[in-house]
Amino acid sequence: MESFDFSSLRGKKHAVLYFYPKDDTPGCTIEAIEFSDHGDEFERRGCVILGVSRDDCIRHAEFRDKHGLSVRLLADTEGEVCKRYGVWQMKEKDGAKKMGIVRSTFIIDKKGVVRHAFYGVTPKGHAAEVLELVKKLD
User: Fold this and answer.
1) Residue 27: domain span
2) Which end of the chain offers a freer environment for a tag, N or C, measured as fewer CB atoms within 10 Å?
């Protein structure tokens, strides 16, 4: 329940910035648990994991506590960060169109350069794939 300044990482740590639609839904839970399970390995590589959704801090805390998550969850309730990264898009489900977060991941190096961008991510196994790319950053 504190503000996060992404620029505080510059020159110090790599970052995995992943966007997900909603706390405590099946795919989002799988993704968050897998990133948490690999958390120590990411940390050894000098990498911070940041999950972003439009849920508020209270909902994030409940989600984190319910599943024992170790990843830092950021609340983008106004959708500003989602729009900046191009993940707030028109989606279609059961014939109905509406705006929503496209599950996406960005690997950002210590210099603040986006090295990899993935849109339409499948949650299962994604954290392990991302870890392999992070290992190649240094």
Assistant:
1) 6-135
2) N
